[in-house]
Design a protein that fits this description.
Helix content is about 60%, strand content about 0%. The chain is built from 14 helices and no strands. It has about 300 residues and is mainly α.
C-alpha cells in the first residue's frame, strides 16, 4: 500500500498538484522500517521545499535523507535487497563526516535559490542555526553556518577574495559568488563572472533538486540582466548586445538552458572574455534537453 501511495505522490508532484497524497505517504513512511521507501519520500520532501522556497527545515530534512540513504547503503552491503529484512530496525549510522555529507551542498543550493525570493540569506541561515540545534551527528554544522553567514556580511573586496581563494571549500567559494551577484558594488564584470560560476556548477550538479534551483535562478538572472540593459553605458556595443540579451531574457526557455543562453548573450556585452572551455560548457548547457528528474515514467 505504501509503495502505491508513493507512486501516486510522484504523479501528484510531477503534475504540480497540492501534496495531499504526499502528506499521507510521508506520515506512513515515518512508521515504516523499510530503508527503501524513506529515501524516496525524503527526496520528494526536498523537492517540495525547493519548489515552494520553504527552506527553514532543510537541515532536518537533509539529515533525515542522508541517514536513510546511508541505511539503504548498509543494507546493500549486508546483501539485503528488496523487502528482505524489511521488518528489522534500520541500522544506526552514527555521526556524519562533513566532507562526505550532502547537507552543505543542499544548503548551498538553498542559498542560491533564495535569490529568487525576498528573504535575506543571513536571516535564513539564522533560522537554520536555530532549527539545527541538537541535530545528532552534525557537530560541525554550526561552524559551517557561521562561516556561510559571514560571507554575506563581509565587504565586497573580501567576498571577491573568497571567491578566488583556491584553499577555501568549494561550497564557500560558491556562496561568495552568490553574494557578489546581488552586490551593487561588485561591477558588471564581477557579477557576470560570479553568474558564470554558478550556472556551470548548477549544470554539472547531479542532485535532483538542482533542477528546482535552476528554475528559480533563471528568472532571477533574466530580471537582473533586464535591469542591467537599462544602463547601456556600462555595456559594450549596446546597440547590438542589448537586444540579444533581452531576447534571451524574454525567451520561453526554462531552468539551466535559459540561464546559459542569457550568459552567452551577455558575454558579448562585458569586457572579460570567456575562455574556450567555459564557452563550450555554457553552449552545452544551453543546448541540453530539459528533463524533469521527478517525472514518474
Amino acid at each position: 500500500m505504501l509503495w502505491c501511495l508513493l507512486f501516486l505522490a510522484r504523479i501528484e508532484c510531477y503534475l504540480k498538484l497540492e501534496p495531499v497524497v504526499f502528506s499521507q505517504a510521508r506520515a506512513r513512511s515515518a512508521t515504516s522500517r523499510s530503508a527503501l521507501i524513506r529515501p524516496l519520500v525524503g527526496e520528494l520532501e526536498v523537492h517540495y521545499a525547493f519548489r515552494n522556497l520553504e527552506l527553514e527545515r532543510l537541515p532536518q530534512i537533509g539529515s533525515e535523507l542522508e541517514a536513510n540513504l546511508l541505511a539503504s547503503k548498509i543494507r546493500r552491503e549486508k546483501g539485503l535487497e528488496g523487502f528482505e529484512g524489511a521488518g528489522r530496525e534500520l541500522p544506526g549510522v552514527g555521526s556524519t563526516d562533513q566532507s562526505r555529507s550532502i547537507v552543505p551542498t543542499l544548503l548551498t543550493h538553498a542559498l542560491i535559490a533564495t535569490l529568487a525570493g525576498s528573504r535575506a540569506p543571513s536571516e535564513l541561515i539564522e533560522r537554520w542555526r536555530e532549527n539545527a540545534l541538537g541535530l545528532a551527528g552534525y557537530d560541525w554544522l554550526n561552524d559551517w553556518l557561521h562561516f556561510a553567514k559571514q560571507i554575506f556580511i563581509v565587504s565586497t573586496a573580501e567576498a571577491v577574495a573568497m571567491m578566488g581563494d583556491a584553499k577555501l571549500a568549494g561550497d564557500m567559494r560558491l556562496l561568495a559568488a552568490t553574494r557578489l551577484m546581488s552586490d551593487l558594488d561588485s561591477g558588471v564584470e564581477r557579477v557576470f563572472n560570479a553568474q558564470v560560476w554558478l550556472v556551470i556548477w548548477l549544470g554539472q550538479s547531479r542532485m535532483r533538486w538542482s533542477h528546482d534551483v535552476a528554475n528559480h535562478f533563471a528568472p532571477y538572472l533574466a530580471g537582473a540582466w533586464k535591469k542591467q540593459c537599462a544602463f547601456k553605458a556600462a555595456l559594450r556595443t549596446p546597440g547590438l548586445t542589448v537586444p540579444e540579451i533581452e531576447r534571451e531574457c524574454d525567451s520561453k526557455e526554462e531552468g539551466i538552458v535559459k540561464a546559459a543562453k542569457i550568459l552567452l548573450a551577455a558575454a558579448n556585452a562585458v569586457n572579460i572574455p570567456l575562455s574556450v572551455e567555459t564557452r563550450r560548457q555554457l553552449q552545452a548547457l544551453g543546448s541540453t534537453e530539459m528533463v524533469n528528474p521527478y517525472r514518474f515514467a
